[in-house]
Design brief:
Blueprint lengths: L1 H20 L1 H6 L9 E5 L2 E5 L13 H38 L5 H24 L3 H15 L3 H9 L1 H13 L14 H19 L1
Antiparallel strand pairs: 1-2
Helix pairs in contact: 3-5, 3-8, 6-7
Amino acid sequence: MRRLKQIISSVFLLLSILICCNKAMAQQAHGADVIPLHAIVVGNDTIPVITLAIFDVVEKMPRALRKQHERWSRLRNAVYVTYPYAKSAARILKDVNSRLATLPNKRERKEFLASKEKEMKVQFGDKLQNLSVYQGKVLMKLIDRETGQNCFEIIKELKGGFNARVWQTVAFFFGGNLKSDYDKQEDKDIEVIVQELELYQQYRAYN
């Protein structure tokens, strides 16, 4: 308690010094620079009086609550970083499926997928490689949310079952799972953050 009182006293002492240092400038102000303030007269000096907003002084955050806050902050950051990639994945997958439906044979489908894969590596390769393993796991959840298919199903559909199994094995060694499905109950924290992000984007678009 003594420590707390010392901190509060120091804050008010600092405010008093700042007010005294700026007193002369305030008294000399004129025209549009004049800001009406309450004041008290002490001797020959006029000292402005400002009422500060009410604030609470609380104890240090408990360890369990601090851990929960850190976990939430980490997840929130991962969603904000990876959600745009999940939205892009959904749009690209829709375009790819539409184009594949117009191609008459397997050779043309294979050539189109190869060119599209090359294009995506140029556009997203470096950015995705910079993601952490944790962010990669969140991204896989979000891709399933946006496309209705997990990453294993998408790779299997576009590149075949063998490629899907190979990449699933690679993901496994990095602690991931291409078959990660998105569940609004199990992943309710992610859903809350996504809703927050979408609301923020709508607000920016409106303004």
